Amino acid sequence: MSSRTEPSFRESVDLMFNRAVKLMDLPPGLEEKIRVCNATYTVRFGVRLRGAMHTFTGYRSVHSEHMEPVKGGIRYATGVNQDEVEALAALMTYKCALVEAPFGGSKGGLCIDPREYEEHELELITRRFAYELAKRDLIHPSQNVPAPDMGTGEREMAWIADQYARMNTTDINAKACVTGKPLNAGGISGRVEATGRGVQYALQEFFRHEEDKAAAGLSGKLDGKRVVVQGLGNVGYHAAKFLSEEDGSRIIGIIERDGGLFNADGLDVEAVRNWIVKHDGVSGYPDAQFLENGAALLEEECDILIPAALEGVINLSNAERVKAPLIIEAANGPVTAGADEILRKKGCVIIPDMYANAGGVTVSYFEWVKNLSHIRFGRMQRRQEEARHQLVIDELQRLDDVMGNTWSMSPDFKDKYLKGAGELELVRSGLDDTMRAAYQSMREVWHSRDDVTDLRTAAYLVSIDKVAKSYHAKGL
Ligand code: NAD
Questions:
Q1: Taking the mean position of all CA atoms in its chain, how far away is CA 388?
Q2: Does the CB atom of residue 329 touch ligand 1 within 6 A?
Q3: What letters, b where the CB count within 10 A reaches 16 and e where it falls short, cover 264-281?
Q4: Which protein residue has the closest C-alpha to ligand 1 atom 23?
Q5: 433 has pLDDT over 60
Q6: Exposed site from 85, 300, 339, 355, fewest CB < 10 Å?
Q7: What pLDDT does 371 receive?
Q8: Are both 40-190 and 217-347 of the same fold?
Q9: Ligand 1 midpoint to CA 399 (Å)
Q10: Are 89 and 62 in contact (CB under 8 A)?
């Protein structure tokens, strides 16, 4: 156990920011302008529930308005506080810049344990919170666009969108006031899975680069790699599911609130998820060893560690014992600044949060564009694309007939080639492209500068440079 004290989440983000900014040559004062949070609004509101008035505390923080609207999720958790919301809003600024989503950074939170309320109660609370934010333009299609985060999902986003629409009855772009909505309420295909899918694409891209794998002491493909995941919620579940089902990785450990599951042969992610939904935890799951102290699995021998629950879980108290050579930060801020230093010295490669979990905001960006353009992606071109492909197939068929049927197409080629891209295919393609391009921008800095020894610093350098250029373009 170290005698050093742990900084707060926001201080931790600032420390990492400062490490990077020291390597840059920014105009005097700009570093501070970029680092600080522009404003944080705190609201306390009452909702009558179960025959009594209940008071709730919520926040919406705007970190940087170098681009508008600002963007960032709304979290429902008992630990929500101003420091946390400001740290998360700052990360949103850097994340959006890194993946070239044209937004400033924001974040919101409500101090509440959503599991303690009935659905109709949560609706009342969410609508009231949305009302308080919307009336101050802290929910607005061109100024501030929330999204889901821990404890919230499609359902809450649909209530927020509807609340905004009720308050702005003539706003034709009202649906663009929030992203992560269900498909039938203006959402986009592939948004629910987007953050986990982005984690998968990030790892696929990492594994395409021999030099990067070597830095972590890894080789080969994702197939067979041993993975430990913390948090089987939206992000962790989708990441683990896609990595095991599509890339052949072995999920040997899953950590949840009530403990951890371990199975060296690999866990069935779908079965564990179903168990959690039914039993409100992993305890009692039959095909694995159960550990009451789930966090101990963070220290398990594995190839890839995916913290996908909450911040600060890898800290000064356990970093020294973490054995994973590669950590991908699916959650925001899971590694504290102090732990980051310890892990770097040990040679552990960390794929940083601002990149690793950017899949969510990337697809949110697509959803926002869809809402503003009022048309589903692929609607205009899909059939036209299919018709052009049909022409090629017909011509090949005709040539084959002319040549006396001497060759044939492989069985599923025709079906695959004929299928035009629908919204889901386009979203996945856009997400994959974004994750690849952003990774390459980070790794270029990582490998080309002697003073940059880790991906996090590289990510900060790329994103701060973009934010600085935006300010410069505005004449600031
Ligand atoms: P979620 O609420 O869907 O899931 C969180 C999961 O973590 C739940 O299964 C919960 O039981 C578990 N958990 C909570 N406390 C835990 C603990 N102490 N130990 C182990 N497990 C614990 O939330 P989410 O949307 O998946 O978000 C997870 C993380 O990913 C957060 O840091 C969030 O900011 C980040 N993130 C989410 C999105 C998104 O699109 N949802 C996007 C970017 C980043």
A1: 36
A2: no
A3: eebbebeebbebbeeeee
A4: 150
A5: yes
A6: 300
A7: 98
A8: yes
A9: 56
A10: yes
Residue 391 has pLDDT above 60, yes or no: yes
- Tokens of residue 67, six digits: 């681009």
| Helix or strand (DSSP H, E) at 288 | none
The rounded distance, in Å, linking the Cα atoms of 293 and 453 is 33
Indicate the domain borders of the chain.
Answer: 40-190, 217-347, 378-422
Cβ pair 313, 285 in contact under 8 A: no
Predicted confidence band at 28 (pLDDT cuts at 50, 70, 90)? confident
Cβ of 162 below 6 Å from ligand 1: no
Work out the angle between the directed axes of helices 423-448 and 359-373 (0-180°, nearest 10).
130
Query: Taking the CB of residue 317, how many other CB atoms lie within 10 A of it?
Result: 14
Q: What is the CATH number of domain 40-190?
A: 3.40.50.10860
Q: Residue 119: is it exposed, middle or buried by C-beta count within 10 angstroms (0-12/13-18/19+)?
A: exposed
- Atom 35 (ligand 1) nearest CA: 331
Coil, strand, or helix at residue 169?
Answer: coil
Q: Where are the beta strands (DSSP E) in 151-310?
A: 226-230, 250-256, 259-262, 289-291, 304-307
At 306-359, the pLDDT tens digits run: 999 999 999 999 999 999 999 999 999 999 999 999 999 999 999 999 999 999
- In angstroms, rounded to a whole number, what is the distance separating the alpha carbons of residues 66 and 92? 12
Cβ-Cβ contacts under 8 Å for 76 (sequence gap 6 or more): 109, 110, 112, 113, 114, 150, 151, 152, 156
Distance, in Å, from the CA atom of 425 to the CA atom of 440, rounded to the nearest integer, reads 22
Query: Which is it for strands 104-111 and 70-77: parallel, antiparallel or unpaired?
Result: parallel
Number of helical H runs and strand E runs in the chain: 16, 12
DSSP state letters, 315-352: -TTTGGG---SEEE--SSS-B-HHHHHHHHHHT-EEE-
For the domain covering 217-347, report its CATH number.
3.40.50.720
Q: Does the beta carbon of 230 lie inside 6 Å of ligand 1?
A: yes
Buried b (16+ CB within 10 A) or exposed e, 384-407: eeeeebeeeeeebeeeeeeeeeee
- Separation CA 389–CA 393 (nearest Å): 6
